[in-house]
Amino acid sequence: MTDTTANRPSHRLFNVTGDGDNARWTDIGVAWTTRDGKGFTLSLNASFRHKQP
To answer: In the chain, where does DSSP find H-type helix?
Structure first.
Protein backbone atom coordinates (compact mmCIF):
# COMPACT_ATOMS: atom_id res chain seq x y z
CA MET A 1 0.00 0.00 0.00
CA THR A 2 1.33 3.45 -0.88
CA ASP A 3 1.26 6.55 1.29
CA THR A 4 -1.25 8.93 -0.33
CA THR A 5 0.06 11.94 1.65
CA ALA A 6 3.66 11.64 0.39
CA ASN A 7 3.14 14.05 -2.52
CA ARG A 8 0.67 16.39 -0.87
CA PRO A 9 1.74 20.02 -0.48
CA SER A 10 2.90 21.09 2.97
CA HIS A 11 1.41 24.59 2.64
CA ARG A 12 -1.43 26.43 0.88
CA LEU A 13 -0.76 29.93 -0.44
CA PHE A 14 -3.20 32.82 -0.19
CA ASN A 15 -3.38 36.46 -1.20
CA VAL A 16 -5.22 38.43 1.50
CA THR A 17 -6.74 41.84 0.79
CA GLY A 18 -8.51 43.93 3.41
CA ASP A 19 -8.52 43.59 7.18
CA GLY A 20 -10.61 41.88 9.83
CA ASP A 21 -14.17 41.10 8.79
CA ASN A 22 -13.53 42.71 5.39
CA ALA A 23 -10.57 40.45 4.55
CA ARG A 24 -10.81 38.48 1.30
CA TRP A 25 -8.65 35.37 1.05
CA THR A 26 -7.86 34.15 -2.46
CA ASP A 27 -6.23 30.73 -2.86
CA ILE A 28 -3.25 31.25 -5.19
CA GLY A 29 -1.30 27.99 -4.97
CA VAL A 30 0.55 25.42 -2.91
CA ALA A 31 4.08 24.78 -1.65
CA TRP A 32 6.22 21.77 -0.78
CA THR A 33 9.24 21.83 1.53
CA THR A 34 12.46 21.07 -0.36
CA ARG A 35 14.32 17.86 0.49
CA ASP A 36 17.09 19.77 2.27
CA GLY A 37 14.49 21.69 4.29
CA LYS A 38 15.99 25.07 3.34
CA GLY A 39 13.25 26.31 1.03
CA PHE A 40 10.05 25.62 -0.82
CA THR A 41 8.92 24.55 -4.26
CA LEU A 42 5.92 26.63 -5.34
CA SER A 43 3.06 25.92 -7.69
CA LEU A 44 1.03 29.07 -8.35
CA ASN A 45 -2.39 28.92 -9.95
CA ALA A 46 -3.45 32.55 -9.76
CA SER A 47 -4.29 34.75 -12.68
CA PHE A 48 -3.99 38.47 -12.21
CA ARG A 49 -5.89 41.14 -14.08
CA HIS A 50 -4.10 44.28 -15.12
CA LYS A 51 -6.19 47.33 -14.29
CA GLN A 52 -6.37 49.74 -17.22
CA PRO A 53 -5.49 53.35 -16.26
So the answer is: none
